[in-house]
Design a protein that fits this description.
The structure is a single chain. 31% of the residues lie in helices and 17% in strands. The protein is α/β, with parallel strands linked by helices. Strands 1, 2, 3, 4, 5, 6, 17 and 18 form an eight-stranded mixed β-sheet that branches. A five-stranded parallel β-sheet has the order 7-16-8-9-12, covered by helices on one side. Strands 13-14-15 form a three-stranded antiparallel β-sheet, with no helix packed on it. α1 runs parallel beside α14 and α14 runs parallel beside α16. The relative contact order is 0.14. The structure holds flavin-adenine dinucleotide and NADP nicotinamide-adenine-dinucleotide phosphate (NAP). The site of flavin-adenine dinucleotide has 36 residues, from α1, α2 and α14.
């Protein structure tokens, strides 16, 4: 959808930035409330993550039947997923279907990036500007900009000197990339690398994987959905969705009652084998109640997963390089794979360990490491995102006292409930730092945030209130609480993007709230029913 319209100016009730799952649902809610909204989206169409990340192998790692909207009972009945874990094209066609069905594109300006927003306390409104020169005033600003939408380039010298093609998994060319008969490099072995490497290897003449930190990965055991299972789930979909909402991670799974140490080694292995065969992302982390709390319980799971890698990868030296040893399993986001470790048994695939031979720079025909020169036609950066804060801090957001969000968050993000920030009235951030967000099935977290924010807006209209802002004390207490819960666990014990550790110079703060979506929802609902405790209204 190429934008052809001239710069626009005008006034509306709400500006919604982002047209992924979060922004789209926000439009739907606002329209039902009779409010006007203007949507601003940098991409050419709806879909967010699923519009941008088109690399081979991209698919969800939460079951498709769970990774979908629950707000409309007819929608969930009529849509049919073909596989346990849907591909990016299938998820994008679902988003397109939802957008058509609810006519959601109408208010959105595509290929348009929000560049700044400034709050006026006297006018009680935001002025939002875009890279097309648009200027919108609005009572409310909703930042539905995604937690994983600001692609991170690698810190490598002389990138521009490379004469071949460079592609980033998070900005994949829509026309695709032809790897046939090419010498290909993939830099990065997080979820994006792990999903794309097996498929690129099938096409390339030779694929070299550049790995800085190995990751734990569990097989997806993907496949077509059993129609009988789908029919029976659809019969109780409403109940299932209700269970998701009060669950820990936004998926329905049993709560472990035993410590890993209470169970005999043979029985533990049987339990792990069953989880491996089932192919569920967080099964291992929830296999016992102390896996993410007690380092020795965590080591039992890590040992099992490392043994699995050794049993798959034929070359023992390569297998050892692929075994993570520098952090507890789960402290970096676990990956779901299809044939990842098996790929290293192919004759056309090799692995470069960047811990022993770091990249020094790109050269016209390839990559130089401290040890050798590697020639390539195509280099794939699977180097992730400036997660959670990146998309919120890219535009200049200027709050009440002229302070920018960048300055307010210079030592790390500060939010109340992961939804609002002191000094920035009438601004809601969907799945922001301080909320469960990326630790969960994001669809559950997104719907909860959109519902909560739109209910506040409705409450304000009902009570004749113009302005809402979280109190500094409430925000400080929330930030302390988020940190306290995180520090009780092993989650902050890896150099992960959860902590901002993947971006040089980024404050090292564990960003998600990990008490679980059910308990978190209760807190948010409690705040609302207590007349929005912790907020000041005008
Ligand atoms: P996004 O989908 O990221 O959409 C945000 C939009 O905002 C983007 O389109 C962006 O262009 C736009 N935007 C940002 N800044 C601006 C600006 N200044 N101006 C204009 N537009 C702007 N989560 C799961 O729960 N399960 C999964 O299986 C899963 N798989 C994933 C796979 C990949 C490859 C990635 C990258 C993430 C995955 N996630 C998954 C997380 C995923 O991001 C969320 O599930 C969900 O799609 C986020 O929706 P969103 O609307 O919040 O954000
Ligand atoms: P990521 O997990 O941050 O992985 C980035 C990889 O690039 C890491 O291996 C990192 O190494 C490496 N890297 C970064 N900069 C580098 C540099 N300068 N030199 C060498 N290596 C470098 O990013 P991602 O794979 O895009 O995934 C991000 C998140 O998106 C996931 O955790 C997940 O939440 C979501 N996602 C989900 C799926 C899915 O399966 N549905 C797919 C893709 C993404 P270090 O680890 O050493 O930093």
């Amino acid at each position: 959808m190429t934008r052809t319209s001239q710069a626009e100016t005008g006034s509306t009730d709400v500006v919604v930035v982002g047209a992924g799952f979060a922004g789209l649902y926000m439009h739907h809610r606002l329209r039902a409330m009779g409010l006007m909204a203007v949507g601003i989206e940098a991409a050419g169409d709806v879909g967010g993550t699923w519009w941008w990340n088109r690399y081979p192998g991209a698919r969800c790692d939460i079951r498709s039947l769970d990774y979908s909207y629950s707000f409309d009972a007819d929608l969930e009945q009529e849509w049919n997923w073909s596989e346990k874990y849907a591909t990016q094209p299938e998820i994008l066609s679902y988003v397109n279907h939802v957008s058509d069905r609810f006519d959601l594109r109408r208010d959105i300006r595509f290929e348009t990036r929000m560049t700044s927003a400034r709050w006026s306390d006297s006018a009680n409104e935001w002025t939002v500007e875009t890279d097309h020169g648009d200027q919108w005033t609005a009572r409310f600003l909703v930042m539905a900009v995604g937690a994983l939408s600001a692609a991170k380039e690698p810190e490598i010298d002389d990138i521009a000197s490379f004469n071949g093609s460079i592609v980033h998994t998070a900005k994949w060319p829509h026309e695709g990339v032809n790897f046939a008969d090419k010498l290909v490099a993939v830099i990065g072995t997080g979820s994006s690398g792990i999903q794309s490497i097996p498929l690129i290897a099938q096409q390339a003449r030779h694929l070299t994987v550049f790995q800085r930190t190995p990751n734990f990965a569990v097989p997806a055991q993907n496949g077509p959905l059993d129609p009988e299972m789908v029919a029976s789930l659809k019969q109780r979909y409403r109940e299932h969705r209700a269970e998701q909402r009060v669950s820990h991670g936004g998926v329905v799974s049993p709560s472990p009652e035993q410590s890993a140490h209470e169970v005999a080694p043979d029985e533990r292995t049987m339990r792990f084998d069953a989880i491996w065969e089932e192919g569920m992302l967080f099964g291992f982390l929830g296999s016992f109640n102390d896996v993410m709390i007690d380092p020795s319980a965590n080591a039992i799971v890590s040992d099992y997963l490392r043994d699995r890698i050794r049993s798959i990868v034929s070359d023992p030296a390569t297998a050892e390089l692929l075994c993570p040893t520098s952090y507890p399993v789960g402290a970096k986001r676990l990956c779901l794979d299809t044939g990842y470790f098996e790929t290293f048994n192919r004759p056309n695939v090799s692995l470069v360990d960047l811990r022993s031979t770091p990249i020094t720079r790109l050269i016209p025909n390839g990559i130089e490491t401290t040890e050798s020169l590697h020639e390539f036609d195509v280099i794939v950066f699977a180097t992730g995102f400036d997660a959670m804060t990146g998309p919120l801090l890219a535009p200049e957001i200027i709050g009440k006292d002229g302070e920018t969000l960048r300055d307010a968050w210079s030592a790390g993000p500060r939010t109340y409930l992961g939804l609002t920030s002191h000094g920035f009235p009438n601004m809601f951030m969907i799945t922001a730092p301080g909320s469960p967000s990326v630790m969960t099935n994001m669809l559950v977290s997104i719907e909860q945030h959109v519902d909560w924010s739109s209910e506040v807006i409705a409450w304000m209209a009902e009570h004749g209130v113009q302005q809402i802002e979280p109190d500094l004390e409430a925000q400080d207490a929330w930030v302390d609480h988020v940190n306290e819960i995180a520090n009780f666990t092993l989650f902050p014990k890896g150099n992960s993007w959860y902590l901002g550790a993947n971006v040089p110079g980024k404050p090292r703060v564990f960003m998600p709230y990990i008490a679980g979506v059910g308990p978190y929802r209760e807190i948010c609902d409690g705040v609302a029913s207590d007349n929005y405790r912790g907020f000041t209204f005008q």
